[in-house]
Fold each of these.
Amino acid sequence: MLKYTPIEKLKKLKIMSVLVFADSSEGKFKKTAFEVVSYGKKVAEQLGTNLVTLTINGGDASELYTYGADKVIEVKNDLSSFNAKGYAAVVKQVAEAQSSDVVVIDSSVDGLTLAPLVAVGLEAGYASNAVALPDTSNSFVVKRKAFSNKGFNNTEILTDKKVIGVAKNSYGAHESSVSGATESFDATLPELGVSSVSIDKATGKVTIAEADVVVSAGRGLKGPENWGLVEDLADVLGAATACSKPVSDLGWRPHSEHVGQTGKPVASNLYIAIGISGAIQHLAGVNASKVKVVINNDPEAPFFKAADYGIVGDAFEVVPQLIEKLKAFKQA
Amino acid sequence: MKILVCISHVPDTTSKINFTDNDTKFDTNGVQFVINPYDEFSLTRAMWFKEKQGASVTVVNVGGAETEPTLRKALAIGADDAIRVNVEPTDGLLVAKELAEVVKSGGFDLVLAGKESADYNGQMVPGMLASLLDFNFVNGCVGIEVDGNNATLEREIDGGEEKVASTLPLVVAGQKGIVEEKDLRIPNMRGIMMARKKPLNVVEATGSNASTNTKNFEKPAPKGEVKLVDNVDDLINLLHNEAKAI
């Protein structure tokens, strides 16, 4: 019976480094960047290899050191914003230069756009939506969420090189400070093909994608004129505001706030649903959130079955009390 | 303009999800299959191009014969013809490689897909397809206009929208916004009758290797009972001390 020592096993797996792409926007790292660095660090430890973290026009590398990124490669170029072909080419060049056989990418919109291109470029198998560290005991198996959070798919990656897309807020960012070092890398950009004309971002508003807390409301709020309640509650919690599909279809709130299966997915730490009954498509879009609170005057609302905490009561009574008590709690 | 719309055949969004054969297969028993909702938004935009700008619209699916009713539905909505690549869609890269062959042999210059499928939610195939073909790629598209060889598009980004410009050929992964929900079409009787006579060509796969393999499926752990409270003090207390969410 042949037994492998860790080094022989490493040779068998032929993994030289784990490359993490830490996404940023306007020179600031996204929250998901810290999560993928934490994930990549563990994968590197598990495989007995090194972690390399790549940033493209990113933020202050010392922020990444906090999460264990001891080697940061900075690429600076004149791309003013994300470009799929451009970023994919940079990741590929760095992965090749660093002999990276595992590449870890986040599930920001950029990450999700980039990863399939990187996979083709590196001839790597790609497993998106990973919710756990890979099982590398025999082969390389990644647990992924599927069926709109109604199931998981354990996917074996068969190729030598592997790309893992980490689902948002599934692994978490874990501090593990190191004294890191930064290198710069000159990457060659291909013809970009798609050019950015303009970017329209709401400033000073917490986005659903980045929010730790999301406050969402449905038809139970009776009309758009009552949304002040939702916004006040969101303000107290530093939360993003969202709504159910009927509310956006009725034009009470913009489509960009619609969360659920065909709207935006939510994977926050805390999701508070006010006056939302909980249609199966809504639940599919939000049940990746860690803690769900439902406030509804109908005790039979299906959302209560999917919730962690609930108050059966009139939103117009409960929410103002909640705002007031939370203000006191935050000040305490 | 020659448009190809990629169609996934997926369980209706209200389906109960179960697995069989030691959790290695999705249980199709009692499941209604539909056009992937994300693809339907893109197909509807393609119909607009056909009617206003004289484009041709072909729909394609990679899958077994059981997906043909879904392709017929796309024909009933108004696509001109359909192609089915006869292989199990077990892996994103495998599907993208088969689609790339279809695009090359058909000379398509605009490929529209949904940004993800409602079953595996992988968000893999459109980007892989663009990369294999070396076409431009716009993901999360919520608006597209084409004028000759030039396209202007809006795409969703974290916290906002970006307007981009691209030339054809182009792969676009669409979502709600590329058309609105109210623009979606329910096939009428005439459409359904006509769809029966439209060509649905079955092509054999090129036999490329899969890069991944599903070992098995799991269902989420059963959720605990909801804790109902009757005042907001208790709620804040639980969220702070028990759930550690605030």
Amino acid sequence: MSKNASYWSANLRLVALCLVIWFVVSYLFGIILVEQLNTIQIGGYKLGFWFAQQGSIYVFVALIFFYANRMGKLDRKHDVHEDDE
Amino acid sequence: MTLQAMTYLVVGFTFAIYIGIAIWARAGTTKEFYVAGGGIHPIANGMATAADWMSAASFISMAGLIAFMGYGGSVFLMGWTGGYVLLAMLLAPYLRKFGKFTVPEFIGDRYYSKAARIVAVICLIVASVTYVIGQMKGIGVAFSRFLEVDYTIGLSIGMGIVFIYAVMGGMKGITYTQIAQYCVLILAYTIPAIFISLSLTGNPIPQLGLGSTMAGTDVFLLDRLDLVLRDLGFLEYTTNVRLSTTNMFMYTLSLMIGTAGLPHVIIRFFTVPKVKDARSSAGWALVFIAILYTTAPSVAAMARLNLIETIEPTPGEYMVYDERPDWIKNWEATGLLAFEDKNGDGKIQYNANPETNEMVKVDRDIMVLANPEIAGLPNWVIALVAAGGLAAALSTAAGLLLAISSAISHDLLKGVFRPEISEKQELLASRVAMAGAILLAGYLGFNPPDFAAGTVALAFGLAASSIFPALMMGIFYKRMNKEGAIAGMTAGLGVTLLYVFQHKGIMFIASTSYLGDMSPNWFFGIEPNAFGAVGAMVNFAVAFAVAKMTAPPPQEIMDLVEHIRVPAGAGTPTSH
């Protein structure tokens, strides 16, 4: 079981990292700090507004693929991956 | 060709495709009926999930809401996409490894309790039925607006189409039609957006156009919109907060948790071959969703600006009512847009002051539907938008109906009341349940209950406060037991229902609201639609407390949790 336990804790660390980023781009940048970030202008977008209506969504997509990729590596490293067909 | 003939042609063509797929993708086993045989490619499943998820509300209503809420509308954009991050990391791969057919089945097995399974079935049915009413209404409205047939006939045609491919093909037929429906709806959404972005900003990519300058000037589009709205007495578009920062935070969180807990979305991840496919498939689903969701803010801002500039082409110069464009006349005829020349000057003034504002009604839903007409796009684009709206409503309705029928035939009939029935009998039962669910949804579409408008909040509230926490704790907290889970679900659900009902009325009958739906009475200024996150927190807290005080779950349950945490050994989904 210890093999699985170390796999599980590595998984939890990865999920925690991803959820911190998830929180930062949406709740922190898009809502809590939106006024401060809005003083920065990128093209026609105020930065806080951009995170709330565009940026957070792009980061969400990237996060899921990052997670899926890293988990695939963890599965193999800890030898708990599914059989190849 | 007239617009109506063109619309009949385009909508008829898409319907022929859906029926063709239905005949090709018949389901022969319960496994095909419930989870499409478990062999759907993750990208194909992602596309089907996107169509399943994006309803009439996403397609028709969302951009219109954002157009009038500005920055405050961000709660929908972040809330309805961020939930996929939770789904991909906290639920989908583990539930796929568990390898059964339905969400209540996991809850029943994990908490070794038929009672827990039945509670989950009830939450699922209430959430899904409330949700499906909106889709049925969307189908009826789209038919009556674009094909100019009676609402009831339109709804009947829509029901007939869903009936053919959902009853015959189950999840298999639904999956392949949803893929076709995704293609229709995304083309219908993006093509007008590209044309409008091009004409306003010279940039064909709407996501970039929103951050660009107005064509032929050096003024940014968003700055221009802010300025115009300020001059008219409205709040600035880009900084208009929805009630309060706390409320926006909780609203976004509720939509995210609710999204991750909606059973019709979760079961889509049971159809992929492997655990690792469930992870990447969630990513693909969000890619396909993000194409629409990042276009929507552009559609919203540009539609608002176009609307204002149609009415006030240059500052102080107002539209002469008798010279209004045809699209305004068309929408006036539906009653969704109305003007009243209060000062009798024959011109239309639009501003934030209710005394002098002469655009007295503008329904949020017309913004997307009227967009191609406002931009003067050709008839085939308008016809495509009609087909897209129908595709969005049909695909979501089918997914919800499958979740309902599998809960009835697999969880209640096979799981609780008649475990001895054969697979063939269960397949028949699932088809009967599907037919019954379609008839019920149709009935509710013909006779929408008074509380229909308020129920979407209830669907997300239920999913957030009951289903999501029970699933997550079942995977991440091995010590969680039957007592804790049931107490948590009941408490989360109870708090959410109490809050929604005390402000919106019991079963949404306004006169029974004993606190009144007004902000001074709201808990920390949180509106009822945003309360699901609080319900989820109550669920977690109560479940932990009760689990600590009661006996741990049996060893075989602990082993089950160990088993679902690792991908190795995931077979294809089974019922045994």
